[in-house]
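Question (not urgent): is this output format expected?
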Amino acid sequence: MKKILIISTLICLQFSLFANEEMKLSGIYQGENLFVMNPFSVTGVGFCIYEVRVNGNITTDEIHSSAFEIDLSLYGFDIGNKIEIVIKHKSHCLPMVINPSVINPKCTFKIESIKLDKSGKLSWSTTNESGELPYIIEQYKWNKWVRVTSVLGKGTQNLNYYSCKVNYTTGENKFRVKQKDDTKKVKYSQEVTYRNLSAPVTFTPGNARKTRDYIVFSAVTNYEIYDYYGKIKLRNRKDKVQVSSLEKGTYFINYDNKTETFIKK
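Got this back:
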């Protein structure tokens, strides 16, 4: 009985040593290859990796070495094509992909056109995208660029069309779009402007005056309220804001295209 138990334990141990695992990487083809460090297996016989697949196809790369290259140029990919790499390896050893970031999307877009219309529609078209990254739409107001919304990029090299609704302040409006990739690189479009001739927005009570409960705007507007130390307290888009929850003191308020102050009593 003891012999049977020992044999059973050895079989389980041997199975655990030779069990197989997978490492998966998904991304976008950017014209570069992957480099892999391939340690010896835990048994000391052979290398850790025994198979590599690219989009389901077994690679012909020489993987039986301590380091090798996965040559993605062999598959006829176009820049921006989706790829999945599966690295099959033995248990109790761990291969390492040295440069996994080369299959992450990059902000390479080229703006073909960008425009605003009087209804508040921002439209732009692009080429040369190399992966799905969000376009961040920004508006210049309150002496800074403010994020408005985002639209997911299509990620293809072909001509892509996008649009979104934006809210105008009175006077000159300035917008741009940008992308940011995993390398922290940021790419911007050119700026586009539109002049809104509507009457300027005002608020009651006016600049530096006191209020206990409410601030009322003359029209619906985006606003931000900051305390004396620059901490954001309230933010929304309305024609009225309740401030009764704020502590007493002086506050800065960004609204329409202005920055003013009020006192909460």
